[in-house]
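Quick review question:
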C-alpha cells in the first residue's frame, strides 16, 4: 500500500479530531450525561458491561427513576436498541467511557477522507476532512454520549464498502467488501434503525438497478457475480436485522413491540392519531415545521458560517454534474443527506439542541459536496484517476466515457461566453504574464475566502455555541462533588433520599450510581415520607440520609421541614 502525503495530512486531521472532541467532552460536557437520552445510554452501557440486557425491577421503581429506562413485566431495561450501549459498555468496562465518541469522531473523519479520495480526489477528501473537523455540529455530537458518532462511522463505512463491492468493479476483493457493507449496515440497524433505513434507501435503489440490469449483448437477464453479491448482502443484513427483533423479544416478550412506546405510547413513527403528542397525531404540516426548524439551526451549525454554511454546496453540485467518471458513486453519496431529511419527516419530533442530529449520519454528504465546490471554484483537481490497485483500471479508461448531454450543454455555454468575452479581451490587451497572474490568483482568492470563513467560525461562532452548551440543563460535575469528599465517603454505604426541586438535580447524581445498586451511594427519588421509609427498609445495611440541592454539603438524618410543597415531575 502506498501512503501519500495527503494520507499523512488526513491522519493528522483525524488525530486532531480525536483531541478536539475529547476537549469538548472534558471542558464543555465534563464527561457527564446531560440529556435524558445520554442518561439512558449510560445505564444500558453499565448493564451491558456486565453482560445484562435486563435487570429485575426494584420494588419501588419510581423511587429509582432513570429517564427512558422502562419497567415492564418485572424487568427493567432501556428503550434504545443495544448497538450503541454495547460499544459504550466496552468503554465503561475499560474505564474510558468519555473516549469512545472522540475515537469514533477521528475514525469518521478518516473514512470521510477516504470516500472523498476514492470518488473525487485527494484534495477534495482533505478539504472535506478539514471542514468536518471545524464543524460545530460535528464537535458537539462527538463530545457527547449520544449514538451519532457511531452512526457516522457505520454509515460512512457502509457507503465506502458498497462502492468497493458494487461500483465500477475496481475492488480486488468484492466479496469481502460485500460482507463489510452488510456488517456496517446491520450494526447501524442495531443502533439507529430509522437512520439505517434512510441511509440505505439510495443504495437500495442502486441495488434494484444492478439486479435488473441486463448484461451487454443479452436479451434476457442472466445471473452474474453482482447478483450473487446482492443476494449475500441482503441475506447478511436480514440476519443481523433479526437480532433487533430478537432483542425486542428478549426485553418485552414480543418481537414486534418497540420499547419506545412503553415509555411514551405516542412515540411512534408515522402520521395520524397515535403518533405524536397532538390530539390529531403527527401531520404533514407538523413535519414541515419540525424539518424547517432543524434545517434552520443546521445552516448555522454545519460550518459556523452563519446562514451561509451551505454556500459551496451549489458549486459542488455543478462540479459533480461535470464529472466524467464515477458519477453514480458521487450521486449515491450526495443522496444520503436528503434521504435522512425525507425519512425523518415521519417522526413527530425534531432536533436542534445539538444541531439537526437526526441527520448527523449524512454529514459526509454535505462536507464532500462543499469540498468539491471549493476545489472546483479554486481550479484544483476535482477528480483524479485513483491510485493503488485501481490505478491500472483508470489508466485503461483515461479518456473516460463520451460527454453526456449536460456536459455538452456546459461546454457550449462556455464557448458562447468565450466568444462574448473576446471583444473585451481584445480591448484590455492583457499580457500573458497578467493572464498567468490571474490564474494563480483564483486559487489564492478561494483559499483566502475559505480561511476567513473558517476563522470566523473558530474564533467567534464556535466558542459562543460551545459555551452555550456548558452546564446544559443545569448539569455540572460540581453537583456530585459533595459526595466525593472524605467526610461524605465516611458515611458510606449510604442510601440518600434526594428531595427534589427539579428532576435534573436527582438525575445528575446518577453519575455516581450503577443499575446494580451496589455503589457506595444509592440515590432514591423522594416520593413521600411513607414510600421513602418503605424503600429504606429494603436496604437494612445502609445508613439513610436526606439530601437537598440547595444545601449540597449537608446530609440530614431526617427530612427537614418543607417551606413549600414542590411540584412532582411528570
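Suggested answer, residue by residue:
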Amino acid at each position: 500500500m502506498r501512503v501519500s502525503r495527503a494520507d499523512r495530512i488526513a491522519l493528522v486531521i483525524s488525530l486532531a479530531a480525536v483531541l478536539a472532541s475529547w476537549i469538548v467532552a472534558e471542558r464543555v460536557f465534563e464527561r457527564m450525561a446531560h440529556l435524558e437520552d445520554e442518561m439512558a445510554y449510560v445505564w444500558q452501557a453499565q448493564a451491558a458491561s456486565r453482560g445484562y440486557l435486563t435487570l429485575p425491577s426494584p420494588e419501588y421503581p419510581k423511587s429509582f427513576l432513570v429517564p427512558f429506562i422502562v419497567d415492564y413485566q418485572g424487568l427493567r431495561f432501556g428503550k434504545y436498541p443495544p448497538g450503541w450501549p454495547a460499544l459504550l459498555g466496552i468503554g465503561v468496562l475499560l474505564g474510558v467511557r468519555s473516549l469512545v465518541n472522540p475515537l469514533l469522531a477521528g475514525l469518521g473523519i478518516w473514512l470521510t477522507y477516504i470516500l472523498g479520495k476514492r470518488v473525487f480526489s485527494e484534495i477534495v477528501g482533505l478539504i472535506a476532512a478539514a471542514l468536518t473537523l471545524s464543524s460545530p455540529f460535528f464537535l458537539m455530537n462527538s463530545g457527547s454520549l449520544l449514538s451519532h458518532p457511531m452512526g457516522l462511522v457505520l454509515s460512512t463505512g457502509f457507503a465506502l464498502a458498497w462502492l468497493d463491492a458494487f461500483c465500477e468493479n475496481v475492488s480486488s476483493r468484492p466479496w469481502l467488501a460485500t460482507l463489510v457493507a452488510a456488517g456496517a449496515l446491520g450494526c447501524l440497524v442495531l443502533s439507529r434503525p430509522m437512520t439505517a433505513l434512510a441511509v440505505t434507501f439510495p443504495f437500495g435503489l442502486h441495488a434494484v438497478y444492478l439486479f435488473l440490469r441486463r448484461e451487454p449483448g443479452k436479451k434476457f437477464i442472466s445471473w452474474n457475480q453482482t447478483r450473487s453479491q446482492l443476494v449475500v448482502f441482503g441475506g447478511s443484513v436480514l440476519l443481523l436485522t433479526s437480532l433487533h427483533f430478537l432483542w425486542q423479544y428478549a426485553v418485552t416478550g414480543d418481537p414486534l413491540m418497540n420499547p419506545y412506546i412503553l415509555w411514551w405510547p405516542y412515540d411512534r413513527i408515522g402520521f395520524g392519531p397515535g403518533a405524536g403528542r397532538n390530539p390529531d397525531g403527527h401531520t404533514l404540516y407538523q413535519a414541515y415545521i419540525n424539518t424547517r426548524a432543524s434545517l434552520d439551526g443546521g445552516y448555522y451549525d454545519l460550518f459556523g458560517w452563519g446562514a451561509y454554511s451551505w454556500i459551496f454546496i451549489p458549486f459542488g453540485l455543478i462540479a459533480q454534474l461535470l464529472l466524467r467518471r464515477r458519477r453514480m458513486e458521487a450521486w449515491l453519496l450526495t443522496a444520503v443527506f436528503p434521504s435522512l431529511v425525507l425519512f425523518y419527516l415521519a417522526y413527530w419530533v425534531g432536533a436542534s439542541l445539538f444541531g439537526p442530529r437526526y441527520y448527523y449520519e449524512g454529514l459526509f454528504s454535505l462536507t464532500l459536496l462543499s469540498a468539491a465546490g471549493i476545489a472546483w471554484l479554486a481550479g484544483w483537481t476535482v477528480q483524479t484517476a485513483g491510485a493503488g490497485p485501481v490505478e491500472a483500471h483508470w489508466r485503461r479508461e483515461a479518456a473516460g466515457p463520451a460527454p453526456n448531454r449536460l456536459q455538452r450543454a456546459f461546454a457550449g455555454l462556455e464557448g458562447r461566453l468565450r466568444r462574448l468575452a473576446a471583444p473585451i479581451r481584445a480591448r484590455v490587451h492583457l499580457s500573458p504574464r497578467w493572464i498567468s497572474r490571474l490564474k494563480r490568483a483564483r486559487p489564492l482568492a478561494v483559499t483566502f475566502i475559505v480561511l476567513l470563513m473558517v476563522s470566523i467560525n473558530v474564533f467567534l461562532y464556535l466558542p459562543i455555541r460551545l459555551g452555550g452548551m456548558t452546564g446544559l440543563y443545569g448539569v455540572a460535575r460540581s453537583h456530585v462533588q459533595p459526595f466525593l469528599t472524605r467526610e461524605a465517603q465516611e458515611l458510606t454505604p449510604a442510601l440518600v433520599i434526594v428531595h427534589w426541586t427539579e428532576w435534573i438535580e436527582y438525575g445528575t447524581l446518577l453519575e455516581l450510581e450503577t443499575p446494580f445498586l451496589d455503589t457506595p451511594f444509592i440515590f432514591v427519588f423522594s416520593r413521600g415520607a411513607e414510600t421513602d421509609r418503605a424503600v429504606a427498609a429494603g436496604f437494612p445495611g445502609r445508613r439513610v440520609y436526606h439530601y437537598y440541592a440547595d444545601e449540597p454539603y449537608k446530609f440530614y438524618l431526617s427530612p427537614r421541614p418543607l417551606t413549600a410543597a414542590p411540584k412532582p415531575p411528570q
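Why it works: Residues 386-401 have pLDDT under 50 and may be disordered. The two ends are 58 Å apart (CA to CA).
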